[in-house]
Amino acid sequence: MNIYLPIAEMSVDVFLILGLGGAVGFLSGLFGVGGGFLMTPLLIFIGIPPAVSVATEANQIVAASVSGALAHMRRKNVDFKMGLVLTAGGFVGSGVGVLIFTLLRQVGQVDLLIASSYVVMLAAIGSLMLFESSRTILRRQAGTATRGKLHQHMWLHGLPFKMRFRRSRLYISAILPLGIGFIVGILAAIMGVGGGFIMVPAMIYLLGMPTAIVVGTSLFQIIFVTSSVTFLQATTNQTVDIVLALLLLTGAVVGAQFGTKVGTRLRGEQLRGLLAILVLVVCGKIAYDLVSTPIDLFSISEITGFVR
Amino acid sequence: MKKFCGSLTILILTFCLIKEQAASEEIKDQNNLIHSPLVADLSEDLIAITTRFTGTEVLLFGATNGIGDVIVVVRAPSSQVTVRQKGRVGGVWINKEGVIFNNVPGFYHLASSRSIDKLLPPTVLKKEQIGAENLSVVSATKADGLDISTYKKALIRNKKRSGLYNSQPGKITFLSNRLFKTSVDFPSSVPIGKYSAIVYLVHNGKIIDRTTTPLQVQKTGFEAKVYEFANNQPSYYGIVAVVIALFAGWLASVMFRNV
Predict the structure, then answer these.
(1) Is the pLDDT of residue B88 over 70?
(2) CB contact under 8 A, A10 and B227
(3) pLDDT tier at A211, thresholds 50, 70, 90
(4) Crossing angle, helix A242-263 and helix A50-74, to 10 degrees?
(5) Size of interface A-B (CB pairs under 8 A)
(6) A106 touching B, CB under 8 A?
(7) ipTM passes above 0.85
(8) Domain spanning B36-218 has what CATH number?
(9) Which region, left, alpha or beta, applies to residue B91 given φ > 0 means left and ψ of -120 to 50 means alpha?
(10) Which of residues 46-65 of A touch B (CB under 8 A)?
(11) Where are the domains of chain A?
(12) pLDDT tens, position by position, B196-234
């Protein structure tokens, strides 16, 4: 059954979109990420214009992260104070991101921007996580796991404007979460992602938050940042396809519920290891598309009135 | 059987058309005694893009006075298009030089009873913009060392690949030596706007007669409302999009609470 998407201006198979939403939603619930880093490339792959994919996916992640965050809130796995500080940085970052996106769209380099951001971010995060989780798993098997400090103290934690985050049991500079929120906000706008796959490791390794509350807090702030991106993209580029977003989120919210339940039965390092592999596979595919010879060395793009 | 019925419909339609034409001719004939040798019409004058739209086919039919060939051109309104060449930089393919073309129709369909090169001389084809290659798309960019014709070819090639440009010599079928018909395929990505279907009657390398029929392609109903809302009130649209997503997420969470 086909449906015509009013903003993407093309006809798509309803069940394909619902299926994509469901599968990616399941993974997002499982790993506590928005799932955007998988969904946006998949949408582009099935022929949705990149600009529409990115903006619409941000809209879809709003829904996925709300239902995910609510599930974590019931288990009291959200640090609201930390979430709000991250969000504050994220708002500014998403504004900057949409601005960069709009400028590069006008000079015809937005596809390259999206693809190369994906390759760089996914390669870095994926290999870091894979390395860390396999080390943990190996150490556990060797039986030499020692209980270390709650978290490592770095020079980063010594910056001014110190703030106490009770739920995370942290007393660190507010500049740190603000900065992370800002950078993730930029990426959210450019890549059409919630940024969970960057936020989660950053919270664990840079902030030193306890793993249990990382996912819930990440989802909590993703709600606000992707809402901001959706609004800004709709206003600046008119690329949010509400029909596509509704189809995706219908599949995704259902999938996410099951993912969250499965996720609670898996170990943290196993989860991170699996996520790392997934991240690297997506990264490899996008990198391949960047270097392989395209079918046509020329591309065309309509100059429409809506790029203001 | 189906084909026969189709032909019969066209026959009847064409007959009505000729009759109607004859009626209006009577008035026209008072100051213009030349009888028009060509009549044509489309099976629809509106293509409505609705939720279930997956592309459509429109029938074009007509009658001639028995001599000559027929060429049909259907084109969408024009716009500006950028054509970019990809180049390899450090192993990665990136967009390099771009050329902007004006007057590029969003859709272009050509059908003819025979190959157009055999029907009209190149100068006429060029002047009338018959055939995608003869479109007078002009580059708005100053050509500094760039081969514009390569870019123009790439433009047409890309449009053809996406099904928006096509030329089908021989796709016009004559049902008798006077009645003809052809079908025009519109893909789901067809741009909206006021189209025109131009039918040429050609004989001995000359255009004897021509007739233009308008065709409207527009989004209707829900599709049109969403599109207009997104483009006319983008801020409100953005807020609505966010609210819907927030609500959907909450709804799912409530629904699955006890699963």
Answers:
(1) yes
(2) no
(3) confident
(4) 40
(5) 188
(6) no
(7) no
(8) 2.60.40.1930
(9) left
(10) 59-60, 62-65
(11) 10-141+152-291
(12) 999 999 999 899 999 999 999 999 888 899 999 999 999
